[in-house]
Amino acid sequence: MEHTILEKRQLSEQVYMMRIRAPLIAEAREPGQFIILQVDTDFGERIPLTIADADAQSGWIRIIFQAVGGTTMKLAAFEEGEAVAAVLGPLGHPTHIERVGHAVCVGGGIGVAPLYPIAQALKAAGNRLTVIVGARSKDLVILEDEMGEIADELIVVTDDGSYGRKALVTEPLRELCEADAKPDLVVAIGPPVMMKFAAETTRPFGVRTMVSLNTIMVDGTGMCGGCRVNVGGETKFVCVDGPEFDGHQVDFDNMMRRLASYRTQEERARHECLAEARAAELEKETHESQKTV
């Protein structure tokens, strides 16, 4: 089955949205689950990406990713009508969706993408829904309109104050927790440091807080052991035991140290990909110049 790219859109400088043909995955997926994607048929990297949306009738899934590593940069170069080599899923435990009363969804940066289907499902279950969307600046805010359509209250914050309210996501989250009727559930997805402080914000109020640790996943099958984290004093593997966990039980400091251990390899892959892209562009320019001679 060809996994054709049906739509491609650039949401910000490094963030891309793609709709990919994957009818079986679209039919089976549930909020919180992810796919494994391989760009080419060679022995390339397999990367886990959370399913940001899907349509079972039309047979497509939506992914939103940041082109920061070698494979995501290659994926960003694909155009509509082209096909990626392999898409496997859905994987991971689905989000447990129930009617709790007042649910607050907190998304930071690219984390707003995997948060969207969870917010959809929580609203469909009959919850009052507050969504907090955070980004460093205005041009990095994503899915604002989509979140606004389903949320009873949408709060947008930016670090630099260029859009919405100048604040970190923890500021409005604390205000909600301090209200007479505090939230019944918080779901936070974003950079590990953001999820850490979101969990610390809700902890004194005893508000149940779920986080998604998809950023640490490597192969997504449990075989490499790269995504092991400490949750409540026990070792868990994000791809097979998660990706969602109780935020008050996660050892975020340990997780962030582990993420930093891959930085050298990630930077090397990024530079290699940039060099390949420059070489390809130079070859194209040379070929075009020869044609005009």
For the structure shown, list the relevant keywords.
Elongation Factor Tu (Ef-tu), domain 3, Rossmann fold, 293 residues, 9 helices, alpha/beta, globular, 3 domains, 5-stranded antiparallel sheet
What is the secondary structure topology, with strand pairs?
Blueprint: E1 3-10, E2 15-21, H1 23-28, E3 34-38, E4 46-50, E5 53-55, E6 60-66, H2 70-76, E7 83-84, E8 86-91, E9 102-108, H3 112-124, E10 128-135, H4 144-150, E11 153-158, E12 165-166, H5 170-178, E13 185-189, H6 192-202, E14 209-212, E15 228-231, E16 234-237, H7 238-241, E17 244-246, H8 252-260, H9 263-292
Parallel strand pairs: 9-10, 9-13, 10-11, 11-12, 13-14
Antiparallel strand pairs: 1-2, 1-7, 2-6, 3-4, 3-8, 5-6, 14-17, 15-16
Describe this structure in words.
With 293 residues, the protein is an alpha/beta fold. The chain folds into three domains: 3-91, Elongation Factor Tu (Ef-tu), domain 3 (Beta Barrel); 102-260, 3-Layer(aba) Sandwich (Rossmann fold); 263-293. Helix content is 33%, strand content 29%. It contains nine helices and 17 strands. The strands form four sheets. A seven-stranded mixed sheet has the order 12-11-10-9-13-14-17, with helices on both faces. A five-stranded antiparallel sheet has the order 5-6-2-1-7. A three-stranded antiparallel sheet has the order 4-3-8. The chain is globular, with a radius of gyration of 20 Å. It starts with a strand and ends with a helix. The mean pLDDT is 89.
